[in-house]
Design goal:
α6 packs parallel to α8. By secondary structure, the protein is mainly α. It contains 11 helices and no strands.
């Protein structure tokens, strides 16, 4: 991406798209500062670039800036793109604020948009666990693991419930060791 972006051969729209892609790659590798720079550059050209809006929202969410993240989620929602991500991030914001009911509703909506979003099952499971819905939490952790057997959030959640609620030491040990 960098060579193409720096080449000067792209028109503004294509450069913005490339910067959003590169920003997503930076974010995925944990390089927040260059990710933010690329997302901002993409949004200066195209204020509705869904990938850049989503990336900014995730970074703000991770840094605890929930109100700021919410602004980007609403902008992303208005584009009509990435519906599952919109609902998922709303769930994460509600979870961080302690609004468990709203979080579950948002995770439900994310899963209505994408039944294969393993992380949404895992996070809904964690939320149900916090709400003392052990059966629902286990079902969600199991659903997440059927989709992605290495998903740490689901494995850790199921491990914890196996230890605390069911005293299923064998399954807890398996979940704890699996990578």
């Amino acid at each position: 991406c960098s060579a193409l972006i720096d080449s000067g051969e792209l028109d503004d729209a294509a450069r913005a798209e490339a910067q959003a892609h590169r920003g997503a790659a930076y974010r995925a590798s944990g390089e927040v500062t260059p990710a933010l720079r690329d997302f901002e550059a993409a949004l200066r050209v195209d204020e509705n670039n869904a990938e850049a809006l989503e990336g900014r929202a995730y970074i703000l969410l991770a840094s605890g800036q929930l109100d700021a993240a919410e602004v980007f989620v609403e902008r992303l929602s208005e584009t009509g793109e990435n519906s599952a991500s919109v609902h998922f991030i709303r769930g994460e914001i509600a979870q961080a604020r302690g609004d468990l009911s709203a979080a579950i509703v948002s995770y439900d909506e994310a899963l209505e948009s994408d039944r294969n979003m393993a992380i949404a099952y895992a996070r809904r499971g964690r939320t149900k666990q916090r709400a003392d819905d052990v059966e629902g939490a286990l079902a969600d952790f199991d659903s997440a693991l059927r989709l992605d057997s290495s998903l740490v959030d689901a494995r850790a959640g199921r491990c914890w419930l196996s230890l605390r609620q069911e005293r299923d030491l064998g399954r807890a040990r398996t979940d704890a060791r699996r990578r």
